[in-house]
Amino acid sequence: MKTIKKILVANRGEIAIRVMRTASAMGIKTVAVFSDADANALFVAKADEAVAISGAHAGESYLNQDKIIAAAKLTGADAIHPGYGFLSENASFSKRCKNEGIIFIGPAAEVIEVMGSKIGAKEIMKKAGVPVVPGYNEADQTPARFKKEAEKIGYPVLLKASAGGGGKGMRIVHKTDELDAAVEGASREAQKSFGDGTLLMEKYFSSAKHIEFQIFGDEHGNYTHFFERECSLQRRYQKVIEESPSPSLGTELRKKMGDAAVAAARSIKYTNAGTVEFILDREGNFYFLEVNTRLQVEHPVTEETTGLDLVQLQIEVAQGQPLKVCSENITQHGHSIQCRVCAEDPENNFFPATGDILYWSEPALDGMRYDSGVTSGSKIDVYYDSLIAKVISFGDTRSIAISRMLNALDKMSILGITSNKDFLKELLRNKSFVDGSFDTKLIEREYSNYKNIAGENALHEMAIAAFLHHWHDKRANESFSHSLNGWRNIFYQPQFYEVETTGSKIKVEYRYTGEQKFEVQIGAQKFAVQLVTVSGPALSCIINNQRKNFNIALSDLHVFVHHPETGTYRFTQLPRFVEPGSGTVKGGYISPMPGEIVKVLVKPGDMVKSGKGLLVMSSMKMETTIEAHTDGEVEEVFVAEKAFVEANTVLLKMKN
Asked: What CA–CA distances, in Å, run from 235 to 166, 257, 263, 444?
């Protein structure tokens, strides 16, 4: 038996804080490591000690084994918890820890190595009697061989990185002439993400469920599962909403899949926490996908429904203790749902978003849990994953869990950056989600052109709130004036405040009548308005006899307003006089996000067809191809490979 006294968490953000919380509760000291970009991050402040490991990119910091090991030795940490992502499924790192006399809180290096290859994993599962997806997983990685095997399997097929997951290195191929480009792109992305460009190919199911089982093993030959998680709501192979138990499984099917998950764990002598992932078709047939040899992002829903602390079990098993629980004595109660709150723009093809979080609030409500890695003032960079928080609800029934989640997201404020919070509410209200019939293609099928469109009345209310906030700020600093536009000699004429959002201009005309009351008109609509209180970001007012509460944050001319019923909107205050010379480059292609140029696919003089790839960008670990939207000739290319660009940078120019 070993005793862990100090744990270094080789990760960042919400998972680092999550691990530290349990470690502290067990009386174990914690150490954070942080990159240059994370010097002021919340998880750094939460640790007992913190060590700078320099560099901003993950490859320079969180993926640098030498720096992580050096930090552990510097602080006297006798164990390392890798969280998820980064080094969590790196066999060489697990082995390195063992050789250095440091406890790795995760499975043995041999297990990670075997399961790290999806190809090898499938062969082992076949021998263990676990159903596997039909596919190709041989050493010949030439496009010609992939084409030959795809014909045998039947289109559509799915290319997957053998050495990793999380949606990296995945491509769906519907026909033969798409295969060459898909193989090249998937292999390149896999090489960049996992250091291994090897691919496997599987039959692709156009309508299916994604179900995973939480498994655990110890050094004493005990193997168990802690029930399933439904992970079918996905976007670009990244899970968006997870829940437990799955609405798709009955008692008999749950037992069959659970038994298969335990058989998988036993076949590889698995130790510590892991997940066996399955695909479930409409006929109730299930197939093995992979084993994730780490704690999963969605583990909180298992904790909420079983009452277990999975991180505590991880630490206990790493110390050589036998599991205290097994499948026979674990019970599941109620229902839990987790929403992943990410810094991304659902209205702009879910491109990553960066910037400063001006205001962050997590409402204290019954049945709610928040695993977050940010707070007001946190900065979101391009270097890491877009996940910033997990919101977890629990209720006696699924409908209660959904209702509590919707209420929490309504009341939760994220101002200053674009997030998917309001999109999550749309998903929770979707009919097929509510009745449990959804599949992995729901988002792609129904939300490819998602827009969070507020009603006219709600937009007007938010514009009035923005005006009141500006008026209050100006009044506090310039008590002689009741006008945002300065002193006027025709005082009885209405003043105005003009903003723009989602392509609409809103002109708030107002007349101050005393005691923080206003007569307001927007277009033909008239409003009786009274400012009640302003306290930091919180503003309360009365609009046409109805009390309204908003959260508001300002950044230059941008006004971020959280409306409790409608969601969060960004308004831009319009200047009274338009600055000359503003405009865009004619024929220019603009970067939709900040990121790195991975590959330039064209050069000046090239004739391109609409839909052809022009260049490949990478941001927050995901690659995006910028495509031509019309036929034409490339006139100029303004960027080069490995260059970093900000959002709205002109990338190239086409002749019209």
From this structure: 11, 24, 30, 7
Q: How buried is 577 (Cβ within 10 angstroms: 0-12 exposed, 13-18 middle, 19+ buried)?
A: exposed
Amino acid at residue number 572: T
Residue 210: other Cβ atoms inside 10 A: 23
d(CA 274, CA 126): 19
Contact 297, 340 (CB under 8 A): yes
Return the number of other C-beta atoms located less than 10 Å from residue 630's C-beta: 11
Mean pLDDT by groups of 10 residues along the chain of 656 residues? 95 98 98 97 98 93 97 98 95 97 97 86 91 90 94 93 80 94 92 87 90 97 97 92 97 96 96 96 92 96 98 98 88 97 92 92 97 96 92 98 98 96 97 97 92 90 96 73 50 79 89 95 96 96 97 92 91 66 59 85 91 85 81 90 82 84
Residues 509, 499: Cα–Cα separation, whole Å: 11
The whole-angstrom separation of Cα 465 and Cα 531 is 9
β-sheet bridge partners, residue 431:
none
pLDDT at 280: 96
Judge whether 409 and 351 are in contact, CB under 8 Å.
Answer: no
Residues 434-450 have pLDDT tens digits of: 999 999 999 999 998 89
In contact, 561 and 465? CB cutoff 8 Å: yes
Q: Which of 75, 74, 71 is nearest to 87 (CA)?
A: 71
* Cβ neighbours for 449, distance < 8 A, ≥ 6 positions apart: none
Alpha helices in 236-347 (DSSP H): 251-267, 299-306, 310-318
Burial class of residue 250 in the structure, from the number of CB atoms within 10 Å of its CB (0-12 exposed, 13-18 middle, 19+ buried): exposed
- Angle formed by the axes of helices 91-99 and 109-116, nearest 10°: 170
Q: Are 374 and 386 in contact (CB under 8 A)?
A: no
Instruction: Give the pairing of strands 286-292 and 379-380.
Output: unpaired
Packed helices 118-127 and 251-267: angle between N→C axes, nearest 10 degrees: 110
Catalytic residue annotation: 294
Residue that the structure tokens 């307003």 belong to:
561
Dig out the tokens for 481 from the structure. Answer: 């004036």
> At 44, is the secondary structure helix, strand, or coil?
helix
CA distance 12 to 19: 10
Pairing, β 79-81 against β 103-104: parallel
Nearest to 85 by CA among 271, 292, 291: 292
CA–CA distance, 310 with 328 (Å, rounded to integer)? 17
Cis check: omega of the bond before 245, within 30 degrees of 0 = yes
